[in-house]
Amino acid sequence: QQPVQSPQAVILREGEDAVINCSSSKALYSVHWYRQKHGEAPVFLMILLKGGEQKGHEKISASFNEKKQQSSLYLTASQLSYSGTYFCGTENFGNEKLTFGTGTRLTIIP
Amino acid sequence: NAGVTQTPKFRILKIGQSMTLQCTQDMNHNYMYWYRQDPGMGLKLIYYSVGAGITDKGEVPNGYNVSRSTTEDFPLRLELAAPSQTSVYFCASSYSGQSSFYGYTFGSGTRLTVV
User: Fold this and answer.
1) Residues of A with CB below 8 A from B57's CB?
2) Sheet strands side by side (includes B4-7)
3) In this complex, which of A41, A46, A101 lies closest to B90 when CB atoms are compared?
4) Which terminal CB of chain A, N or C, has fewer other CB atoms within 10 Å?
5) Is 60 exceeded by the pLDDT of residue B97?
6) What is the tens place of the pLDDT at every residue in A43-64?
7) Other C-beta atoms within 10 Å of A92: how many?
């Protein structure tokens, strides 16, 4: 079942923060986060595993709430290069493939 | 190290024609996937493979076929193209299915239009 992402779109000024949420109705084993720029392929950002800790690099981090079957992606002090569509991909137990959400379009303006 | 290579990048097909989308990876990944992405939408899984000789259906397999004779190659065959197959097709690969710490590596995509 496809995970639900929110919001669908967000517009930020450079330097502002954003949170993108991803929720599933099924028990999750892991959550992936990807960023896709217009006309390009999705690029892997990070993975969060069941029982794992919050992960991140630079100013992009994510958390995984196992009880709620939710993950959140945090972008702090956003830069112009952060613009793009963010997808979460979820893996369920016993499944060897990702199911992607419908995406969140992030626009950063100067 | 080229990663995942897809050909062609663009193609226009007439209704009823057939074609093969090529995908090859040089990372020795066991798992390979085919997704399609319609405008403004997420990625839908068509077929996937966990190793040479093993393939399985994804969410939207109708109208497509795959084969996996080698670790490197995972071609997608479209038979009797229909306008509903107009989409961008992405091939991806990974070391494993679950707990793939390096995530999926995607090819640059094939933009297919069926007229």
Assistant:
1) none
2) B4-7, B19-25, B76-78, B64-66
3) A41
4) C
5) no
6) 999 888 876 665 666 689 998 8
7) 18
